[in-house]
Amino acid sequence: MLYDYFLYIVTNKNKSTLYIGVTNNIQRRIAQHYFDSEHFRRSFAGRYNCYYLVYYEGFATPSEAIQREKEIKKWRREKKNKLISDFNPNWEFLNSDVF
What is the pLDDT of residue 9? Predict the structure, then answer.
């Protein structure tokens, strides 16, 4: 991957809950979400089993990624769904694309 920072959206198996985050290591971060959902369930993503990657964007700087995260978090669910569907029409789990 050509970027150092990522905005990502993960969901649960039923695609009913979305978690939006920023990271500089998308593989490690998704693994952390998975581990938390299996063992601790302390975080939002862990409690709702959100570790299935459905969307991501790359950025050169952390401030760009954080700015985009804040923008998307303000959106209604319908707009977030459209963003994901435009990028990933079948809402396939993209975890294998980044591992």
Answer: 98
